[in-house]
Amino acid sequence: MQWRPDIVQAHGTRAALFVKLVKLSLRHYHFKFIYTVHGFHLAHKKHLLDRIAFFIEKLTNRLVDVIVCVGQDDYRLMNKVMKGRGPKIMLIKNGVISIRPRHDKDLEQLRQHSKYLVMTICRLHYQKNVANLIEAFQFLDNNFNLVIIGDGPQLSSLQCLARDLKLSERIFFEGNKPDASSLIHYCDVFCLSTHWEGLPLVLLEAMLSKVPVVASNVHGVREIVRDNVTGWLFKADDAQELSHKIIQAVSDSSARDHIIEKAYELVLAEYNIEQMIDGYKKLYKSVL
User: Fold this and answer.
1) Within 10 A of 67 (CB to CB), how many other CB atoms are there?
2) Rounded CA gap, 97 and 205, in Å?
3) 78 with 219, same domain?
4) Is residue 150 part of a domain?
5) What is d(CA 214, CA 190) in angstroms, rounded to the nearest whole number?
6) Which tens digit of pLDDT belongs to each residue from 21-71?
7) Domains identified in the chain, total number
8) Are 120 and 137 in the same domain?
């Protein structure tokens, strides 16, 4: 090898699998292997192939020196799954930095023609359950519009769903946009109707932007969105409850302002970038 690192850090399952293969093939070269898990996704999937992949993941995690979880829910789950066998497991919470609002002419026009603008930013994939959010708009009147920023394998089916529900004039698919979090300021409510998460940075970014958040009461979300404290939670897949929570988020300005401020304080106190950097510095020193 031309370079011989002392520490190799992999972010995510695919990158970790590559490093595991390298470690198996280089038996005479030893390095410290840190695996940062951004959502323990295989633990939430039920298909046979996913179960097999989950078993392989658990088995090969013994090649890792330290597993880093970015949220409390994943930290608890990882400890439960590994049962004290294998690598050391640490919690270093994700951190976010201040977001500078950016202008976007399409969203500017949409903002002007919407009394209430709801936004979601995500990959259009089964995990994110955007269909549930679209279905919720059946229960919201014409004062509410939805903008979806992101792309993915479910784009066509979600567009068909919006047409079938006769919501095409109120639901806008904007595709991928660079620095999408800098556009959160355009919306009145930010929503994430996901099936599960590791620790969703986009919710932290919305909170830091002082925009009220509505999200599903699932793994990885409930540790940052506390119902009627730092946001509004709804039962996953319940489109009608989701619509009610969106209405709550725009109806009571006094309660909304209090919740927005509590969410902002939570991000500053527990999910700031300085704490995350300090956590990794201490980790690197400890493994050398």
Assistant:
1) 23
2) 8
3) no
4) yes
5) 6
6) 988 888 777 899 999 998 776 666 677 777 787 788 888 888 999 999 999
7) 2
8) yes
Query: Which residues contact residue 56 at a Cβ distance below 8 angstroms, ignoring those fewer than 6 apart?
Result: none
- Structure tokens of 170? 């109120």
β pairing state of 32-37 and 189-192: unpaired
Q: Looking at the structure, tell me whether residues 126 and 262 fall in a common domain.
A: yes
Q: Are the C-beta atoms of residues 173 and 154 closer than 8 Å to each other? A: no
Query: How many of the other CB atoms lie within 10 Å of CB of 245?
Result: 25
Q: Are 196 and 223 in contact (CB under 8 A)?
A: no
Cα–Cα dist 139/165, whole Å: 11
This prediction's pTM: 0.91
Q: Are residues 148 and 179 in the same domain?
A: yes
* 142 and 157 share one domain: yes
Residues 155 and 278 in one domain: no
pLDDT tens sequence across 155-205? 999 999 999 999 999 999 999 999 999 999 999 999 999 999 989 999 999
> Phi, psi (5° rounding) for residue 126?
-50, -45
Q: What is the residue range of 152's domain? A: 105-270
How many angstroms separate the CA atoms of 36 and 282, rounded?
15
Flag whether 1 is in a domain. no
Question: Tokens representing 10?
Answer: 């992999």
**Contacts with 248 (C-beta within 8 Å, 6 or more apart), sequence order:** 232
Q: Mapped to the 3 state alphabet, what secondary structure does 83-123 carry?
A: CCCCCEEEECCCCECCCCCCCCHHHHHHHHCCCEEEEEECC
d(CA 82, CA 262): 34
